[in-house]
Amino acid sequence: MAESFFKWDQEKLTTHVDAMDNEHKKLIDIMNKLYDRNAAKAPKAELSAIIKELAMWTVTHFEHEEKFFDTLDYSQAKTHKTIHKDLVERLKGHQAEFEKTGQLGPAFFQFLKTWLTAHIMGIDLKYGVIAAKKAG
Ligand SMILES: [Fe+2]
Ligand SMILES: [Fe+2]
């Protein structure tokens, strides 16, 4: 099997909130599928369907996450929501570009990688810390 585009790393990526970790894993699975199918030169319609799935799951995940951290005393909730909005817009921009060109270039996969590392590790972990404190 081909090397995965992105591997789940429990130590580095866990938010210690199981439901959110499971959704992050689901997103990573879809990204890996997209990476593999793109590398295998799958037809445009198939790639397009995977990107749609990714976009849909991203929106759903962000909704769940926002609902969750709104139950916490999380001072950065507003900024976090703005970042989500920006990520969705950028993802949709890449999606529109793909629909036009039929190409998923390195910039697209770089965007996904940065999103995962910078967002999950840099931002999502923060509500994880607060949730852990609340749980005692
Ligand atoms: Fe987030
Ligand atoms: Fe997240």
TrEMBL record:
<keyword id="KW-0561">Oxygen transport</keyword>
<comment type="similarity">
    <text>Belongs to the hemerythrin family.</text>
</comment>
<keyword id="KW-0813">Transport</keyword>
<dbReference type="InterPro" id="IPR016131">
    <property type="entry name" value="Haemerythrin_Fe_BS"/>
</dbReference>
<dbReference type="InterPro" id="IPR035938">
    <property type="entry name" value="Hemerythrin-like_sf"/>
</dbReference>
<dbReference type="InterPro" id="IPR012312">
    <property type="entry name" value="Hemerythrin-like"/>
</dbReference>
<feature type="domain" description="Hemerythrin-like">
    <location>
        <begin position="16"/>
        <end position="127"/>
    </location>
</feature>
<dbReference type="Pfam" id="PF01814">
    <property type="entry name" value="Hemerythrin"/>
</dbReference>
<dbReference type="InterPro" id="IPR050669">
    <property type="entry name" value="Hemerythrin"/>
</dbReference>
<keyword id="KW-0479">Metal-binding</keyword>
<protein>
    <submittedName>
        <fullName>Bacteriohemerythrin</fullName>
    </submittedName>
</protein>
<dbReference type="InterPro" id="IPR012827">
    <property type="entry name" value="Hemerythrin_metal-bd"/>
</dbReference>
<keyword id="KW-0408">Iron</keyword>
